[in-house]
């Protein structure tokens, strides 16, 4: 059922979005209704996904991740076609941009997250292609070479601090991620005897690709299409940052006494075994094991019982994070308990 669950989770939200775009009116908000209500409710009602070992018979499921780029690119093209045709009223335009951005940020960027960790270059490239649809190709560098090394330390801009609200975290994380991507690439090129503006700088590659994408959208659909594209990209990146906020909020690695930090362990990530969360995010909820073994494909990940436990699945946690007083009331005591037990 796991493979079928991931296929269902990956495809249901883009299909809902395409259906809503085609029907117009209030239907454009179908993905919003899914995320803000149905997904969180189903996470509570469905039994948790207990996975303490990889099922026999291989790991499969790779095709689901590969299929995300044509699916999401097609959804975006369809939406831009409708914008160019003048099919939307102002509020439908905004609702559709919100819906497409939610799909790109949830299913799209979690698929990209899976792909940028893959050993094969063409799969990493596919992850960059998905990230480029929302103008966040720097995710490839910042996440893999930055976050995975510095998570749980003051050096990581994507680890949320205890007492930091989501609304303070997002701008710090976005700006910090951009700086990290450029710093890491500058250091990589320096080790090879190259300057920061050398043509091998991958950030420059990404800037050219994304700039060409913006020019192409503008030439095809005009300023309304460009505005739509920018809004959906902004929504998607906000959702990615919200996910990052949830995954490591308040969790810290201790100094190792040698000028560094203790090894990344199970208690440096918040885990979720909620079934719908993991079906729709390629097992992203099994986050502790992902950090300990970043090269593992998503079907190989299992639940680490030593990890910190999210009270809800990702949709519920995201809704909670949007109300900082409630978030602090629920999460801060859990963080303090962890620190006391360390």
Automatic annotation (TrEMBL):
Localization annotation: Cell inner membrane
Keyword field: Cell inner membrane, Cell membrane, Iron, Membrane, Metal-binding, Monooxygenase, Oxidoreductase, Transmembrane, Transmembrane helix
GO cellular component: plasma membrane
EC number: 1.14.15.3
Transmembrane segments: 58-84, 90-109, 121-139
Protein name: Alkane 1-monooxygenase
Membrane topology reported for the UniProt record: Multi-pass membrane protein
Keyword Metal-binding: yes
GO BP term, example: lipid metabolic process
Span of domain Fatty acid desaturase: 90-303
Recorded family membership: Belongs to the fatty acid desaturase type 1 family. AlkB subfamily.
Keyword Cell membrane: yes
GO MF terms, alphabetically ordered: metal ion binding; monooxygenase activity
Superkingdom of origin organism: Bacteria
Main location: membrane
């Amino acid at each position: 059922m796991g493979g079928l669950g991931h296929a269902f989770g990956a495809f249901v939200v883009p299909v809902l979005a395409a259906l809503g775009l085609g029907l117009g009116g209030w239907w454009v908000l179908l993905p919003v209704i899914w995320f803000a209500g149905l997904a969180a409710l189903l996470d509570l009602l469905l039994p948790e996904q207990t996975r303490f070992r990889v099922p026999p018979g291989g790991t499969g499921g790779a095709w689901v991740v590969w299929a995300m780029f044509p699916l999401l690119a097609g959804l975006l093209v369809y939406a831009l076609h409708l914008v160019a045709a003048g099919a939307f009223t102002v509020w439908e335009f905004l609702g559709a941009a919100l819906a497409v951005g939610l799909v790109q940020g949830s299913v799209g960027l979690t698929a990209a997250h899976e792909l940028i960790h893959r050993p094969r270059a063409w799969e990493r490239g596919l992850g960059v292609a998905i990230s480029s649809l929302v103008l966040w190709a720097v995710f490839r560098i910042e996440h893999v070479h930055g976050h995975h090394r510095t998570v749980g330390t003051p050096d990581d801009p994507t680890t949320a601090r205890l007492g930091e609200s989501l609304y303070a975290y997002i701008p710090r994380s976005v700006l910090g991620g951009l700086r990290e991507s450029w710093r890491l690439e500058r250091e990589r090129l320096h080790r090879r005897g190259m300057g920061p503006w050398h043509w091998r700088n991958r950030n420059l590659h990404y800037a050219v690709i994304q700039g060409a994408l913006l020019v192409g959208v503008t030439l095809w659909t005009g300023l309304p299409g460009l505005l739509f594209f920018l809004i959906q990209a902004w929504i998607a990146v906000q959702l990615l940052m919200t996910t990052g906020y949830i995954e490591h909020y308040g969790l810290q690695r201790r100094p190792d006494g040698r000028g560094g930090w203790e090894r990344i362990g199970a208690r440096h990530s918040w885990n979720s075994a909620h079934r719908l969360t993991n079906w729709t995010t390629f097992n992203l909820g099994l986050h502790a094991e992902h950090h300990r073994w970043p090269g593992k494909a998503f079907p190989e990940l299992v639940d680490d019982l030593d990890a910190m436990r999210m009270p809800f699945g990702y949709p519920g946690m995201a809704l909670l994070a949007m109300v900082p007083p409630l978030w602090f009331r629920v999460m801060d005591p859990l963080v303090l308990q962890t620190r006391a037990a360390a």
